[in-house]
Amino acid sequence: MYSTTLDITQIRADFPILQRQVNGQPLVYLDNAATSQTPLAVIDAISDYYKHTNANIHRGVHALSQEATDEFEAARQKIQTHFNAAKAHEIIFTSGTTHSINLVANGFASFLEKGDELIVSELEHHANIVPWQMLCERTGAQLKVIPITENGTLDMSVYADLLGARTKVVFVNHVSNALGIINPIEEIIEKAHAVGAAVLIDGAQATPHMVPDVQALDVEFYTTSAHKICGPTGIGALYGKEAWLRKLPPYQGGGEMIDQVTFEKTTYADLPHKFEAGTPNIAGGVGFGAAIDYMNNIGFDAIAAHENDLMRHATKKLKKIEGLHIYGDVENKVAVISFNVEGLHPYDIGTLLDKMGIAVRTGHHCCQPIMDHFQIPGTVRASFAFYNTHEEVERFIAGVEKAVGMLR
Ligand SMILES: *Cc1c(COP(=O)(O)O)cnc(C)c1O
Question: How far apart (Å, rounded) are the C-alpha atoms in residues 334 and 175?
Fold first, then answer.
């Protein structure tokens, strides 16, 4: 009945946390869109780094410093290869998607004039709204919003109308973290380029499920966070086209990002170091590289196929529950299900599920504009990963049925 090429039992043995109990029940972890769990391959890479290599990078002539530098730069190359960036120095290590977007938005301050226009979508995470609003306050540029339609997809005809000669940058997510919808980013990028605008794609929610090719997309900026792709927290990457990264001013000043420092004038280091002031999260970078290897070993096609199988199955069963409504229930989505049950608060459902050992997210998912659109306080969000099983889906469905029965 279920078609999966993955050996889920063997995969689950790679994740110690999946073995634990919560509230006396085996954990069912369905909050993968908030953060994914960490396999031993990543935990070991970080632990080995601290046991055998730990030193500061790019500074010392001593052996440890050189080994640490090599490991950090090898991770950068893994990320470059994975996303098919043309050059390793087009990959900037950041603390994650939030940092990456702030870095770019801050840099745009030097290019914008009053009356210039920026385009965002109604479907964004706050991380891809607020930094640009701050930029607008500083520069007098204006924020235009692509609205969403009834089923949660972007209204692309409004987008076409919003674009114009004053549009300088368009920023949307590849996949919505609140609804799981995959946005038509190829079309978004092409139309933006037609008016000479740059594009930033927030890939935090896409990269756990698919492998974007930044050259094929021809995108100016693409972001990812390691902790959503089985890597550690506090590390991520910004891809930027070389010409743009050269144009953008540095975001933070400090050590590592300079060429020459005098009190008269400081010149900046070359890419990527210009954007990597201070000691980076070296162990995190090494763990990030290990996570990419781990995911590629399993294979993204098999990952997506299994996750979609789980989602379709769960969707079918959830829809049988009276009064249950799924938001963004469209064909083109990743394994995220956002729902509410008529008359019930999402928080109450989430709390009861937690008592049964089932972890889901409840609330606005850092996307208040979407919740305002649907006029709801939030949703219950179940997000699936390749290590989730059909048995867990059954426990989740039974849990929702039980919770709804208790609350009604
Ligand atoms: C998680 C997420 C972010 C924020 O990522 P951080 O790792 O917290 O910086 C931004 N956008 C989307 C779509 C996300 O899912």
Answer: 8
- Cα of 365 from ligand 1 centre, angstroms: 10
- CATH T-level fold of 43-296: Aspartate Aminotransferase; domain 2 (3.40.640)
Tell me the torsion sign for CA atoms 24, 30, 35, 36.
positive
> Which residue carries 């290599």 as its tokens?
53
In angstroms, the CA 406 to CA 383 distance is 23
Q: Which ranges in the chain are annotated with CATH 3.40.640.10?
A: 43-296
Is the separation of the CB atoms in 311 and 335 below 8 Å? yes
Cβ distance 131 to 156 under 8 Å? Answer: no
Residue 105, both tokens: 């938005």
Q: Which atom of ligand 1 is nearest to the CA of 205?
A: 15
| 8-30+299-407 belongs to CATH 3.80.10.10 | no
pLDDT tens digits along 221-247: 999 999 999 999 999 999 999 999 999
Checking if the pLDDT of 1 tops 50, the result is no
User: CA separation (Å) from 1 to 4, 58, 309, 317, 390?
Assistant: 10, 54, 10, 15, 11
Residue whose Cα lies nearest atom 1 of ligand 1: it is 204
Strand 361-363: give its sheet, edge to edge.
324-327, 336-341, 379-383, 361-363
For residue 387, give both structure tokens. Answer: 């290590």
Compute the distance from residue 125 Cα to the ligand 1 centre, in Å.
Answer: 7
- Distance between CA atoms of residues 164 and 149, nearest Å: 22
What lies within 8 Å, CB to CB, of 262 at 6+ separation is: none
Catalytic residues: 366
Check pLDDT > 90 for residue 5: no
The answer, as to whether pTM is greater than 0.90, is yes
| 55 vs 253: CA distance, rounded Å | 22
Q: Which regions of the chain carry the CATH code 3.90.1150.10?
A: 8-30+299-407
